[in-house]
Design a protein that fits this description.
There is one protein chain. The chain folds into 2 domains: 184 residues, Glycogen Phosphorylase B (Rossmann fold, 3-Layer(aba) Sandwich); 148 residues, 3-Layer(aba) Sandwich (Rossmann fold), CATH 3.40.50. Helices cover 45% and strands 15% of the residues. It has 16 helices and 13 strands. It has a 7-stranded parallel beta sheet with strand order 3-2-1-4-5-6-7, sandwiched between helices. α1 crosses α7 and α10 runs parallel beside α15. It is globular. The termini are close together.
Length: 360
């Protein structure tokens, strides 16, 4: 038996194709453990519904607000589970607090850990995710990487090549399935949108939203640089609490609750472009060939810049930089994507081929 750990929105898109492939093969048992790190139904339950994920075998329903509270509560809860019934392998995905917490508990109880999306590095230690991913990698036994560069990062850090597997990107597996099965023109009518004539905006990282004044100034600059084009902004709970009067942005910025996965991907695919600070969305937009402006100073996914449609302009861009970037996007002269190796929708299959050998 293996445990699959998930707790936050980015995890769900990664585990969905993996669990689907495991269930199809029926070679070994698995146990899905939801830590509850994202407890808001718009950030959790709706993704289980959209992605057709099975009901978790165990749900911790963690309520901790700070990073330390979340990590500690998850560790306590998972330790109790392992004392009763310990798996052969724990599979963790991504770089959230749930990932690190489960890895620490598993290793201390002599259970091997496989890290999916291992080896990513931004070299920015102001990001909690960078700390989580480095610490998780440091104690993992097996590494599944999205790119060759991620594999090289691990090899250069001294990890054994035989335990590193370049398998591709599970996010693309979910994306391909969603695009294939979800087409809903009514969504455009619902928000009064014209195809390729609106923008998507997502902002949630602490250095962009925790300072209320800077966050609202950034929204003003984006709204102005968009030249009246409608901007769909599904707002993260972290961002919402620091938002000033939404009416200030009512002319072209439409603020929504977090969208279901299928709806978001559909709107992204029909948009003119996206402004974001999310690493996952840089991957999704690159695959879809949608222009992407990233409001960050660095990225752990450099392939989205080198081969994809992503372009970094910083976490505090000037009005001029925003205007120039959006003008280029509106002109239709944005760079096009190139093929990123193994981002082909077959990553879950490759991972399961390896898991079959590791577990059996």
């Amino acid at each position: 038996m293996i445990d699959i750990i998930a707790g936050a929105r980015p995890n769900f898109m990664k585990i969905a194709p993996l669990i689907k492939e495991i269930r199809k093969r029926k070679k070994f048992k698995y146990r899905l453990i939801h830590t509850g790190q994202h407890f808001d139904s718009n950030m959790s339950k709706v993704f289980f519904d959209d992605l057709k994920l099975p009901k978790p075998d165990i749900h911790f329903k963690i309520t901790g607000k700070t990073h330390s509270e979340q990590t500690g509560q998850i560790m306590n809860a998972y330790e109790k589970v392992l004392k009763k019934n310990s798996p052969l392998l724990v599979v963790v995905v991504g770089d959230v607090n749930s990932t690190l917490a489960a890895s620490i508990v598993a290793k201390k109880m002599q259970v091997k850990v496989a890290h999916v999306e291992a080896g990513l590095r931004s070299k920015d230690f102001t990001m909690p995710e960078e700390i989580n991913r480095i610490l998780t990698d440091s104690i993992s036994d097996f590494f599944f990487t999205t790119t060759k560069l991620a594999s090289e990062n691990l090899i250069n850090s001294g990890f054994k090549k035989k335990n590193i597997f370049h398998v591709g990107n599970l996010m693309i597996d979910s994306l391909k399935q969603s695009i294939k099965n979800f087409e809903n023109p009514k969504l455009l009518k619902k928000y009064n949108l014209e195809e390729k004539d609106f923008l998507i905006l997502t902002i949630h990282r602490p250095n962009n939203v925790d300072n209320k004044k800077n966050f609202n100034n950034l929204l003003h600059k984006i709204s102005k640089a968009a030249k009246g084009k409608k901007i769909i902004f599904p707002i993260h709970p972290r961002s919402k609490k620091n938002l000033s009067n939404p009416q200030v942005f009512s002319k072209n910025l439409k603020i929504l609750n977090p969208l279901p996965y299928n709806e978001f991907i559909f709107l992204l695919s029909k948009s003119k472009g996206v402004l974001t600070d999310s690493g996952g969305i840089t991957e999704e937009s690159s695959y879809l060939n949608i222009p992407c402006i990233t409001l960050r100073d660095n990225t752990e996914r450099p392939e989205t810049e080198a081969l994809g449609t992503n372009f970094l302009i910083g976490s505090n861009p000037s009005q001029k930089n925003l205007k120039n970037s959006l003008d280029l996007m509106f002109s239709g002269n944005w760079k096009s994507k190139n093929k990123i190796p193994k981002w082909d929708g077959q990553t879950a299959e490759r991972i399961c081929n390896i898991l079959d050998k590791l577990v059996l």
